[in-house]
Design goal:
TIM Barrel, 9-stranded parallel beta sheet, 279 residues, 9 strands, alpha/beta, UPF0759_sf, globular, 14% strand
């Protein structure tokens, strides 16, 4: 029984008293968390040797979610970008079993009329890594029939529907510069809790107030515990606007779920000198 937790990045200036060398940052992060959002690949495909370096820092059961390049998902809207996709897949190959899933993050304008493109695109992805799809068009959350159509497309390809829960972020007006920035960038959509497959994915976005973030994830504790009892193995990513507390909060979330599911496998125990001091 495994619950994987992680953050939107693997390096942040406030996480450790002494910043690890660049070549060791992913390894140090993996002492604390068991998954990461590979957001960097959305903005630029790394060199293959960079992925080789990442792979050398990870265990096979670590979950690296690599986002497809922006040209494929946003510029070509899944209808082109074959060269960009091929270069990305070649670069990611060295991650091997640590490449848990390919993350297809779609723009807010990608709606029901685009489902044909998604249905044609997903089966063309390589076998091996899972597929996680994040949609942001309001119709998929507000129209039951459109949600069902999307579920049929995802289920046919064995893909997960990534939930991006920003309800805590938007529960009160922003109070910090980072919260103001997040309000201008993050989607404002209803919370969605159903799981499709064996590896549900949740992006939970809290506040810069750690206690507000903890209080806001309460509905997810029972949901994730239920998934574990059903035999699923979820991944939960914890975001905050400035992400300064995110590493400790991700571990805190895992601990709170484990209090409900004592048989849950514990997280790795990092060296005390390197552990975040928030909790």
């Amino acid at each position: 029984m495994r619950l994987h937790v992680g953050c939107a990045m693997w390096s942040h200036g406030s996480w450790f008293e002494r910043q690890p060398p660049a070549a060791e940052r992913l390894r140090r992060y993996a002492e604390h968390c068991t998954a990461v959002e590979g957001n960097t690949t959305f903005y630029a495909t790394p060199a293959r040797r960079t992925a080789e370096s990442w792979a050398a820092q990870l265990s096979p059961d670590f979950r690296f979610y690599a986002k497809l390049p922006r040209p494929v998902t946003h510029e070509h809207r899944l209808g082109g970008g074959a060269a960009e996709l091929a270069a990305f897949l070649d670069a990611m190959e060295p991650l091997g079993p640590s490449l848990h899933a390919l993350w297809v993050q779609l723009p807010p304008t990608f709606g029901p009329n685009d489902l044909g493109a998604l249905a044609a695109f997903l089966p063309a992805l390589p076998a091996g890594p899972g597929i996680a799809v994040e949609v942001r068009h309001p119709a998929f959350f507000e129209d039951v029939e459109q949600a069902r159509r999307l579920v049929r497309v995802l289920s046919a390809a064995g893909a997960e529907w990534v939930t991006f829960d920003t309800t805590t972020l938007y529960a009160a007006p922003p109070r910090t510069p980072a919260e103001h920035e997040a309000w201008g960038k993050k989607p404002r959509l209803p919370r969605r809790t159903p799981a499709l497959g064996p590896h549900p994915v949740v992006r939970y976005h809290g506040r810069d107030d750690a206690e507000a973030t903890i209080a806001g994830w309460a509905p997810w504790l029972e949901t994730v515990a239920g998934w574990l009892h059903e035999g699923r193995s979820p991944t939960v990513f914890v975001h905050t606007p400035d992400n300064g507390d995110a590493l400790g909060l991700a571990r805190r979330f895992h601990a709170e779920v484990r209090a409900l599911v004592p048989e849950l496998e514990p997280l790795p125990e990092p060296e005390p000198a390197h552990a975040p001091t928030l909790f």
